[in-house]
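Entry 12.
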Amino acid sequence: MSAPQINAAVLDGIGRTPRYGTFPAPVAGAGEAVVTVGAAALKPSDRLMADGVHYAPTAFPQVAGLDGVGRLADGSRVAFFAPQRPYGGMAEQALVRDGLWFPVPDGVDDVTAAALLNPGGAAWKTVIWEGQLTAGQTVLVLGATGTSGRIATQLAGRHGARVVAAGRDQRVLDALAARGAGAVIRVDRPRDELAAAIAAEGPYDLIVDYLWGPPAEAVFAALMHAGGRGPRRTRYILVGMAAGEAASLPAMTLRKAPVELIGSGNGRPVPVADAAAAYADLLRRAAADEIALDVEAVPLAQVERTWTRATADRRVVFVP
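Predicted 3D structure (tokens):
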């Protein structure tokens, strides 16, 4: 009698596109649990894993997907992360270490919960945990039209901040303005013009940067121009490098403006209980339409044709 099989997004080697195929069903050992997967989002980190850049696998075949949402054997719904290799989230079942999950409350569907898990947690960690945001502050989100940037913009606004959203996609910028952003700025413009637009909406207590590269250089120019007229300190948190890995930082920026420049993830780790509470709060806000995200649910069987498709304006979520 053959061993039970599941359908999954199977990765056969570094640099390969996952294919839809069968894989041996997981069997839980001591300290493990099998999750019946309801949804798993496609994230940049998943593509980086497949390319051997981030969490690179060393043995194949391997199931793709670094997290997902599903049900445990007792029926409870959870959002899980870091599944046990060779199992991943993009499958009918995943294998997870006991406790490496967050409860998923009622009121939000699996697809939305999966879409919010990674970018929502990252946005909360940057804005609230590392950014130490308080009501009444002014926040600049550089790269606000990406998935995590959109959540960060809305989350900061819901916590009482005035938010300036900067990005390339005018449609998303307009949507963020309609949902409460204090101002929106297109970043695809000459540096001096962008710097002037950023300076005009400041000063800033917190800058969350998903872009780096030339847009960051425009921010530095704006901060230097503002000089001592800004707040006592601007906390600048670098999260991503979507616009380039290098940016020139003039020495006078740090001498003329009170800037604290840090990389996200370098501070104290977030306790699991705090992260779980933050995720539950994000889901409640999503259910109440306080945080919105464009999501596209795609059958897992279409993983190969969807994997490399450009979806910067929305989050693709695979449904087994």
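Annotation: The chain has nine helices and 16 strands. The domain at 5-107+292-319 is CATH 3.90.180.10 (Quinone Oxidoreductase; Chain A, domain 1).
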